[in-house]
């Protein structure tokens, strides 16, 4: 039963989530002023044909909000830098069937493969596993009073989407990813 106290608590959590999602993600890179603090991350490099080339340490890409806004289309900026979600059934990759790699739109890190893609009928591209776990970061997302797992690019911290536990075998996972956060390359 939804009483006044529960309604107020849920409303407060939702408002807090909106504030944190709008402004919290902007603060780290804006505070950095676009200057990367010599932080490195480990990722796995892949050729354009999908061949694994091995693990490597690379500098994390840090830019100011204004720099990201200049580089990205408005929807890609909203999704990757502000953690927003594109409308379902509108992105170019949700029913896309070509073979190849999906790279982060912000830094070109290989994050998903068409070999791991499946049709989830949710309106977003869905994958049962990332191309390499080292190339993505999963973290808690409590926006809107919900408890979810967000997926970001390890190299530039671009928001890609969320992961859910209602996917197919062999993992049982569904990486629900925004088309606006991806750039596809044929293998």
How would you portray this structure in words?
The protein has 187 residues and is of the alpha+beta class. It has four helices and eleven strands, in the order ααββααβββββββββ. The chain is globular and about 40 Å long. It starts with a helix and ends with a strand. About 9% of the residues have low confidence.
Give the helices and strands, then pairings:
Elements: H1 4-24, H2 26-32, E1 40-46, E2 52-59, H3 65-71, H4 74-82, E3 100-104, E4 110-113, E5 117-118, E6 126-127, E7 136-141, E8 148-153, E9 159-164, E10 174-177, E11 182-186
Antiparallel strand pairs: 1-2, 3-4, 3-11, 5-6, 6-10, 7-8, 8-9, 9-10
Strands ordered across the widest β-sheet: 5-6-10-9-8-7
Shape call: globular
Question: Biggest sheet: strands, sense, closure?
Answer: 6 strands, antiparallel
CATH class: Mainly Beta
- Total separate domains: 1
Q: Label the structural class.
A: alpha+beta
CATH H-level superfamily: Peptide methionine sulfoxide reductase
- State which percent range the strand residues make up: 25-35%
Number of strands: 11
Query: What CATH architecture would you give?
Result: Beta Complex
Number of alpha- plus pi-helical segments: 4
> Which value, in Å, is the CA radius of gyration?
17 Å
Question: What would a concise description of this structure say?
Answer:
With 187 residues, the chain is α+β, with helices and mostly antiparallel strands. Helix content is 24%, strand content 29%.
Structural key phrases:
187 residues; alpha+beta; Metal Binding Protein, Guanine Nucleotide Exchange Factor, Chain A; six-stranded antiparallel β-sheet; three-stranded antiparallel β-sheet; 4 helices
